[in-house]
Amino acid sequence: MQLYLIRHAQSQNNALPEEERVEDPGLTELGHQQAEALGKWIPSLNLTRLITSPFRRTLLTTEPIRRATGLVPEVRIDLHEQGGCYAGHDFSIKVGRPGMTRGEIEAEFSGYRVADNIDGEGWWQGKPYESWEAARVRAMRLLEATRREFAHTNERVAFVMHADIKRLFLSHLDTDPLDVPCNTSVTEIEFSANSAVLRQFNRIEHLPNHMITR
Asked: How do residues 167-208 score in pLDDT, each as one tens digit?
């Protein structure tokens, strides 16, 4: 199978200093333009599955892909960014927030297939801030689950996700340390029954130079 790790388009938080960031931002105007550019280019990948994190910025990035491919996006918690959904920029004051509820996702993103473990309490349910080590373990579990679900298939799967969990996922493939991927960049991994090989990292040919951001 081919797996494509796609970082979300520029979020409102990406464009703000850390102390002004919020728990679940949308996209900037440039971010919407990046997502539309990605959507125009994405049919070249011939995707068969589309899976996204439940953060609003990834859902908004997924929408142009959905329109371009006709795929039904699947919303899964385990693709969320390191830390979870929280408010506060200093570790001592980071407070867990609920995240979008099942009803909110279904109302704003009609037709998306929302995982059963996302309910009316929100996908994060106000849990404590997720440590880097906990996210590293989650990334390993995500890699193992991806192997079990897809490695024996011919699926072409996109994960719409986030910079840090994407890099943690890739770190388990014995790759060299990687830079922060650009917004809407595409990273390709080829899975077989016995291996997972990084084929391309940080593809951004769908973006003109003035639209490239991190």
From this structure: 999 999 977 778 899 999 999 999 998 899 999 999 999 999
Quote the CA–CA distance of 111 and 94 in Å, as a whole number: 33
Distance CA 197, CA 190 (A): 5
Residue 106 phi, psi (nearest 5): -65, -30
Structural domain boundaries of the chain? 2-84+129-208
Supply the pLDDT for residue 213: 98
Cβ contacts of 12 within 8 Å, gap of 6 or more: 22, 25, 26, 27, 28, 31
CATH 3.30.565.10 assigned to 2-84+129-208: no
Burial of 125 (0-12, 13-18, 19+ CB in 10 A): middle
- Could you tell me if 45 and 37 are in contact, meaning their C-beta atoms sit under 8 angstroms apart? no
Measured CA distances, 95 to 56, 126, 127, 192 (Å) = 18, 8, 8, 40
| Cα torsion angle, 27, 80, 206, 63, sign | negative
| Whole-structure pTM value | 0.96
Answer whether 80's CB lies under 8 Å from 129's CB.
no
